[in-house]
Structure formats: structure tokens, C-alpha cells
């Protein structure tokens, strides 16, 4: 009985905690992020304006249009996709913010039939 009461107390207190989410500071700027390809961790960078995002990773430059849904969510769409997979828009959501970074999750903007929707998380650090 004590275990159930303790579990209930922990769940109640945990549900009251809210992460800071001041997304306005992260709508534009230059950001750095880490990503993994074939087990190797790498660092990329992107510059975002109200309308565009320019990505720099693996010695490549790629551009996407940015369409804001609200202060904390936006959709990225490649400007010049090089494959069918790159034609798919990506839905980005800022989950929490700190004074210099934000945690986000992303997934395909439109769910494909008969496929599981994969949601990934990341951390972007504002450098400018």
C-alpha cells in the first residue's frame, strides 16, 4: 500500500513539472547539432531565418523553406530535393528551451500509409 501511495505521489509531482519553452528566441539564428551516421558521431550547423534554413553537414550545403505553424512548431521542405525521399516535408517541434539551446523532435509531416511514423529527438545549440 505504501508503494502505491509513493508511486501516486511521484507521478503527481512529475506531472506538475513543466519544461521551459521560450521558442521565440530560437526562430532565427545559427545553430549547431550532433548527428550519427553509420555509428560515427558528427557535428552539423544550420542558419535559420523566418523563411529559410541553410544546412551545413558532411561538407554539403542544403536549403529548405521554413513554414511556421506556431511559435514552437514548423515544417521544413527541401528547396531542391535530389531524391523522392528528400521531397517529403519534415515537421519539427521545439519541446524545451534553455538559455542557449533547445530540444526538439522531428518526423515526416505527412504519415505514409502502411508505415510506422518514426519520431526522432535532438538538441540544437545556438551559436549566433
Describe the structure.
12% of the residues lie in helices and 50% in strands. The protein is mainly beta. It is globular, with a radius of gyration of 18 Å. Keywords: Signal. Residues 1-20 form the signal peptide. It comes from Geojedonia litorea.
Summarize the structure.
The protein is mainly beta and 128 residues long.
Question: Which helices and strands appear, and what pairs or packs with what?
Answer:
Blueprint: H1 2-16, E1 29-37, E2 40-48, E3 52-57, E4 60-70, E5 73-78, E6 90-97, E7 101-108, E8 120-126
Antiparallel strand pairs: 1-2, 1-8, 2-3, 3-4, 4-5, 5-6, 6-7, 7-8
Keywords: Signal
Organism: Geojedonia litorea
Signal peptide: 1-20
Mean pLDDT value: 86
What is the H level of CATH, i.e. the homologous superfamily?
Answer: Uncharacterised protein PF14869 family, DUF4488
Beginning-to-end CA distance, first to last residue: 53 Å
Residue fraction in strands: over 45%
> Can you tell me the residue ranges where pLDDT is under 50 for at least 5 consecutive residues?
none
Shape: globular
Main β-sheet description: 8 strands, antiparallel, barrel
Number of strands: 8
Structural class: mainly beta
The total of helices stands at: 1
Briefly note the CATH topology name. Lipocalin
Sheet with the most strands: spatial strand order: 1-2-3-4-5-6-7-8
Instruction: Give Rg in angstroms.
Output: 18 Å
What is the CATH architecture term?
Beta Barrel
Q: Compute the number of structural domains.
A: 1
Q: Could you spell the SSE succession in H and E letters?
A: HEEEEEEEE
Classified by CATH, the class is Mainly Beta
Helix content: 10-25%
Amino acid at each position: 500500500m505504501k508503494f502505491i501511495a509513493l508511486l501516486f505521489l511521484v507521478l503527481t509531482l512529475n506531472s506538475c513539472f513543466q519544461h521551459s519553452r521560450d521558442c521565440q528566441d530560437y526562430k532565427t539564428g545559427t545553430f549547431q547539432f550532433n548527428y550519427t551516421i553509420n555509428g560515427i558521431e558528427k557535428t552539423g550547423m544550420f542558419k535559420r531565418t523566418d523563411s529559410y534554413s541553410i544546412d551545413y553537414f558532411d561538407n554539403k550545403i542544403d536549403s529548405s523553406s521554413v513554414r511556421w505553424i506556431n511559435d514552437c512548431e514548423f515544417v521544413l521542405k527541401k528547396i531542391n530535393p535530389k531524391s523522392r525521399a528528400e521531397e517529403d516535408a519534415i515537421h519539427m517541434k521545439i519541446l524545451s528551451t534553455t538559455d542557449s539551446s533547445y530540444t526538439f523532435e522531428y518526423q515526416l509531416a505527412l504519415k505514409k500509409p502502411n508505415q510506422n511514423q518514426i519520431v526522432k529527438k535532438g538538441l540544437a545549440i545556438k551559436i549566433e
